[in-house]
User: Fold this.
Amino acid sequence: MCINIRLEETSDIQSIHTTTIAAFLDAPHTDHTEQFIVDALRDCGALSVSLVAEDSSKIVGHVALSPVTISNGATDWYGLGPISVVPTEQNKGIGSKLMHAALRELNHLNANGCVLLGDPNYYRRFGFEPIDGLVLPDVPPEYFQAVLLQGARPTGVVTYHQSFSAQG
Assistant:
């Protein structure tokens, strides 16, 4: 297996959609709208970074980054997600490669930091951790995590782009 991580191209859109559906099909704690979120972010011009993982020219994974707002006015913060790997390719390091590539892209954007909602046991290895005072309403704090890339740690309520309410 030789995984190549690269920026999304227009010809990848349908494969990203299909990959995202497959990745979340049997996942717990989902309402199965992840593919619609990615499409809506793209359609609104809010998909800041969209990376694909390909194996022999076949897309097997995807990660999206989009801007978030923080109630204290902190700028240049992004939300990571959804991140998707097709089930037959999971547990092979593809998600880790996508995460590392996403963090590199954030550094290229001169981002101050990134937030995500996910399993703390998985995302801790990439530097993500809960930050006291940085909250996503109605989410257990241990699952809402952030990585500070530069600047000061923000506090406040985080709001994802409106595309995260996309239903289809």
Remarks:
- The chain has a mean pLDDT of 95.
- Residues 29 and 118 are 10 Å apart (CA to CA).
